[in-house]
Amino acid sequence: MSEQQLEEGRRQGNGGARSEQRPELDAPAEPAKKSRMRLRVGLGLAVVAVVALLWWLHARKFEDTDDAQVDGYITAVSSRVPGTVVRVLVEDNQAVKKGDLLVELDTADLEVAVAQAGAAAAQAEAAVAEEQPSVSITATSNRATVKSAEDEVANTEADLEAARRELDQALATNRFAQQQQERAAQLLASNTVPQAEFDQRSSAADVALAAVASAQKRVDQRRARLQTAQARLVEARSNAPRQLVAREAGLSVRQANLELARAQLRQAQLNLGYAKVVAPVDGIIGKRSVNVGDRVQPGQQLMSLTQNGELWVTANFRETQIERMQQGQQASVHVDAIDRDYEGVVDSFAGATGSRYSLLPPENASGNYVKVVQRIPVRIKLRSGQAEMERLRPGMSAEPKVRVR
Q1: Mean pLDDT of 311-335
Q2: Most buried residue, 114, 221, 237, 259, by most Cβ within 10 Å?
């Protein structure tokens, strides 16, 4: 056998020896490698568990949703009077201040209405000026009439009293004359007095009797006159207040007409001012739908005005998320369009779920019932003075997060 063959045999022998010895050397290394692998996996799982626990402890303090948007007031700018548009001074997306002129209407018809209302007010003022003195005149006349009636009654009473005294005197004179006549008749029968004296006493008795009749007649006349005067006094006292009330009522009617005419004049002046449509608040113009030459009517929407000075976030949380949510809790709002977080506070909760405010609210009493988790609109008020708030617009998507623990 050659030396080369012997060398190859030795190499094979040595290789076989090494191959027989390797399992004996590697056997203790495999359990250590497995134990290290188990340790690494255990540490990894422990880290994941700790991270998951920490995340859960942190996340349970917050409630968040992606069903939210920035919200704000949008004013519908409309005309308060009919007219033809002669000027439009704004465009869409233009920022305006409160009081800025937006649209101007033709004022010709409104100026005519102001003139007519002014003339009506002047006529009403003249009517009041004409009627007003009659009240005081009527009052003075009524007082004079009542005073005259009272004086007439007093004078008639005095005349009646005088007539009664004259009647009493006539009666006394008549009694004396009749007695003298009777005495003269007795003396004439005894031829004590002459016939002439008897005739004289008889004539005196007749005169006295006639005087009584005349005095009685005057008493009756004075009594009748007194009754007439008293009736006239009663009538004057009764009619005087009625006449005054009638005059005052007429004056009140004319004063009411004056107030109505002045109100109509004021309304006509206001309508003339309404021909200039101005911005009611600060904001941004949108959806302009009016042009020069358009005929507009009261209440017709001309454009929209977004009030970007006061914005909030409307977040539609699931009803299961508001168990611990309360007014005044702190909130953080992420706005996608600006990629910024804004601080806010829970301001209020809606009075009903969003489905109840929909055009066709669900009626669970009809058909098959399927329980659906409802959403409650929650209003989150943003704190003022934060950076880039002027870039916020109603309708922007937002993701609020409320701290509830």
Answers
A1: 93
A2: 114
Assigned token pair, 101: 């002129």
* Arithmetic mean of pLDDT over the chain: 84
Select 109-273's CATH number: 1.10.287, 2.60.120, 2.60.40, 3.30.980. 1.10.287
pLDDT band at 103 (very low <50, low <70, confident <90, very high): very high
Mean pLDDT of 132-150: 77
Structure tokens that stand for 276 in this block: 């200039």
Residues 383, 341: Cα–Cα separation, whole Å:
12
Sequence spans of domains, the chain: 62-106+282-403, 109-273
Rounded Cα distance between 147 and 236, Å, is: 9
Q: Cβ(303)–Cβ(94) under 8 Å?
A: no
Query: Are the beta carbons of 247 and 134 closer than 8 angstroms?
Result: yes
The yes or no reply on domain 62-106+282-403 and CATH 3.30.420.40 is: no
Of 13-17, 171-175, 330-334, 352-356, which has the strongest mean pLDDT?
330-334
